[in-house]
Amino acid sequence: MWHSDRPIPQQRLALALSHLLLSLPIPLFIPFLRAFWLTVAREWSSVDVLRMDKFLRLVRYYVNASFVYLSTQAWNASLVSEYLGLVGDIPLSPTDRKVPDGLKYHILDVWVEELNNVDRDRSANCPVDDIMGPVSRLEKEGVTKLVRERARETLCDERLVDWRSGKTRNGSVEGEEWEGLGD
């Protein structure tokens, strides 16, 4: 990633790296992500402004690939719980001052959007309230006021209302059929 200087190769490389997750067996999913998040959190502050875009993209793609992986596992409750525990302990840790706020802000910026991209049909299996757990914890226990406020904004995202009400992306309610204009 560091030496990839052109936008198209950067995107391809970030996508290829994030898609490594999709080929992992279940026992390796969490350890792989743990290593990724520890590395990103440790190195985030040393990424210069000229290279930040490519790492923002990489983080976005990893958040997306994680949701894709969980959805392909039918939102397995224990796997989702492990994943959310990991996210709550490392990149969205409310109390770990070693994790830069900039990383937290970016994850909060893409969290709902990438979940929306993966669960476009508002699957009844998607545990939205659980997935928002680390964000909720960050909003309540975050050390810095700006992070708490950003977490609060994420929790108020309108798309979350759609999930909770059972609406799909086109605004219809799941299971509801249009019966015409009537007489």
Summarize the structure.
The protein has 183 residues and is an all-alpha fold.
Kindly report the oligomeric state of this protein.
single chain
Residue runs with pLDDT of under 50 for 5 or more positions:
none
Structural class label: mainly alpha
Assign a percent range to the helix content: 55-70%
Largest sheet: none
In words, what does this structure look like?
The protein is mostly helical and 183 residues long. Helices cover 63% and strands 0% of the residues. The chain has 9 helices and no strands. The protein has helices at 7-19, 26-43, 52-72, 77-89, 101-118, 128-131, 133-141, 145-155, 158-165. Helix 3 crosses helix 5 and helix 7 packs antiparallel against helix 8 (145-155). The longest helix is centred in the middle third of the chain and has 21 residues, at 52-72. It is globular and about 45 Å long. The N and C termini lie far apart (62 Å).
